[in-house]
Specification:
Blueprint: H1 5-13, E1 18-22, E2 25-28, H2 29-45, E3 53-57, H3 62-73, E4 77-80, H4 87-97, E5 101-104, H5 112-118, E6 124-127, E7 138-139, H6 140-146, E8 160-166, E9 174-179, H7 180-192, E10 201-204, H8 211-223, E11 226-229, H9 235-245, E12 249-251, H10 254-262, E13 277-281, H11 287-296, E14 301-307, E15 314-318, E16 338-339, E17 344-348, E18 361-366, E19 373-374, H12 378-384, E20 385-386, E21 389-398, E22 404-409, E23 413-416, E24 419-422, H13 423-431, E25 436-446, E26 450-459, H14 467-475, E27 486-489, H15 503-511
Parallel strand pairs: 1-11, 3-4, 3-5, 5-6, 6-7, 10-11, 10-12, 12-13, 13-14, 26-27
Antiparallel strand pairs: 1-2, 8-9, 9-19, 14-15, 15-16, 17-18, 18-21, 20-21, 21-22, 23-24, 25-26
Length: 519
């Protein structure tokens, strides 16, 4: 299996069908494949070698879609940069992966000089925004116009397809290595779950750097469907795109769904009849929000996907049939679903023995979707991958029908607005403030974000650092969504006999009386 396979198939079967729509631009599969082959040729002409990492830092666009195909076509490895990260975090991912080429749009162009001065690996920069390329950068359209199309390098199977960065428990991001088999098998599983139908259109409304969007788009590549793209999520733009481009499927995290159904544009008359299904993930959705969403979008199916970057990204699916009012009595709505096709899921104890049904343990997953490992981090890889099973760090129980119910998070992670936030990264940033003697970061319930980042801080003697100062300090080091939204100041942190911070004790007042200790 290989990522570009679906594009070859679409060109063979319906070359003149519309493949992509972005603003005023639309292109057929024939035209898309030609541009992909030319961009691949241009990357090679700029010195890219087989296996080189090629990064992209950009809002959503049709050029992002071309990048996702052209890099493997040229024999390279994708490194989509998280647009919500700070410049320091992005630079870390460029350096850690050894990315030699960077595609950047106008929004993030101001960061390029910092990258050039501080990066030891970056050799070439391509400006993929509209308009003339800035000095020292190659123009995207000029490169395509001047390049000769190259034959597909046909990287496939266990060849590395991409390095996808996620947060780290050590305070630094880690690169998840995914092969062509990993990504294609996950796409085929979603196609088998019917998250793509013939002659459909998938809307890229979630950020395209995120594997969740790429993963949900994969079954539509396989089906040979069209891709509609908006630069970034905005409720009105989502609704306009659904009506204009006859969108059938999209992915939204619960926070986005809440923003969509609450937006005044929902009251504006539009033909949204093409929309068949919305996939949601990253966190469960409350029954109240599901009710509101189904009322606002009658006839639209809601499908929950549970997984993580390390699983390419899907492990379980809770299908539309268990979201409907007539099946609520079955009690599966709060579930993350059952193992998707070609995937095995178990709940195990610390000795990796499967626990009885109804007993909380750790979710582990085995299948062709499981990552190859963490880039240049063999110890972390060995800890996560044991006997072929990916240890997720999520605490859950399984019912007699094989449905998984998430109960807690064994790893020190918060999910806020659909984004993973590792406490260690926030604590690392906080600890660099001169007024902080000790700190701990936890997730607390939030109606808006699911979970919000909360810091508990011990000040240094004589320090008068307040919450606003600590939040502003963090924003200079890490992405805004990772920064604390609230801070408590205490005289001392609760510690175990071994000197470890008792975060369960810090979390308890916020989560008391709730069925789950995560949102």
């Amino acid at each position: 299996m290989y990522l570009t396979q679906a594009l070859h198939r679409a060109v063979q079967q319906h070359p003149d069908r519309i493949a992509v729509r972005f603003g005023e631009r639309e292109r057929t599969f024939r035209a898309l494949a030609d541009r992909v082959a030319r961009l691949a040729g241009a990357l090679r002409a700029l010195g890219m070698q087989t296996g080189d990492r090629v990064a992209m830092l950009s809002l959503n666009s049709d050029r992002y879609l071309e990048y996702q195909m052209a890099v493997p076509w040229a024999g390279g490895v994708l490194n989509p940069c998280n647009i919500r990260w700070s410049a320091a975090e992005i630079l870390y991912s460029l350096e850690d992966s050894g990315s030699t080429l960077l595609l950047v749009d106008e929004t993030f162009r101001p960061m390029v000089e910092q990258f050039r001065h501080q990066s030891g690996s970056l050799r070439q920069v391509i400006h993929c925004g509209d308009g003339d390329a800035p000095k020292g950068m190659h123009g995207y359209e000029a490169l395509i116009a001047e390049a000769d199309p190259m034959a597909d390098a046909l990287r496939r199977g266990e060849d590395l397809a991409g390095i996808f960065y996620t947060g780290g428990t050590t305070g630094f991001p880690k690169g998840v290595m995914l092969s062509h088999t990993n990504l294609c098998s996950s796409g085929l599983a979603l196609r088998a779950e019917s998250f793509a139908t013939p002659d459909g259109t998938y809307l890229h409304a979630a950020p395209m750097f995120h594997l969740a969007d790429m993963g949900c788009a994969m079954p539509h590549w396989i089906e040979g469907n069209a891709h509609a793209i908006i630069p970034a999520f905005h409720p009105e733009q989502v609704l306009d795109a659904i009506a204009r481009d006859r969108v059938t499927h999209t992915l939204l995290v619960p926070t986005m769904i809440q923003m969509l159904v609450d937006h005044p544009s929902m009251k504006k008359p539009r033909d949204l009849g093409s929309l068949k299904a919305i996939a949601y993930g990253a966190s469960p959705m409350s029954e109240a929000l599901i009710e509101r969403a189904m009322a606002a979008l009658p006839g639209v199916d809601f499908v929950q996907a549970y997984g993580m970057t390390e699983l390419s990204p899907v492990a379980t699916i809770n299908p539309a049939s268990y979201h409907r009012p007539e099946t609520r009595y079955l009690g599966k709505l709060r579930s993350a679903g059952r193992a998707s096709f070609a995937m095995e899921v178990r709940i195990v104890d610390p000795m990796d023995e499967e626990v009885p049904r109804g007993t909380v343990g750790e979710v582990v997953v085995r299948g062709p979707n499981v990552m190859q490992g963490y880039w240049n981090k063999p110890e972390l890889t060995a800890a996560a991958l044991r006997d072929g099973w990916m240890h997720t760090g999520d605490g859950a129980w399984m019912d007699e029908d094989g449905f998984v119910f998430i109960a807690d998070r064994l790893k020190d992670m918060i999910i806020s607005g659909g984004e993973n936030v590792y406490s260690a990264e926030v604590e690392n940033a906080l600890a660099q403030h001169p007024g902080v003697a000790a700190c701990a970061v936890i997730g607390v319930p939030s109606d808006e974000w699911g979970e919000a980042v909360h810091a508990v801080v011990v000040r240094r003697p004589g320090s008068d650092a307040d919450a606003a100062a600590l939040m502003a300090h963090c924003k200079t080091l890490i992405a805004g969504y990772k920064c604390p939204r609230s801070v408590d100041f205490v005289e001392a942190l609760p510690l175990s006999g071994a000197g470890k911070v008792l975060k369960t004790q810090l979390r308890e007042p916020f989560w008391q009386g709730r069925e789950r200790h995560v949102a």
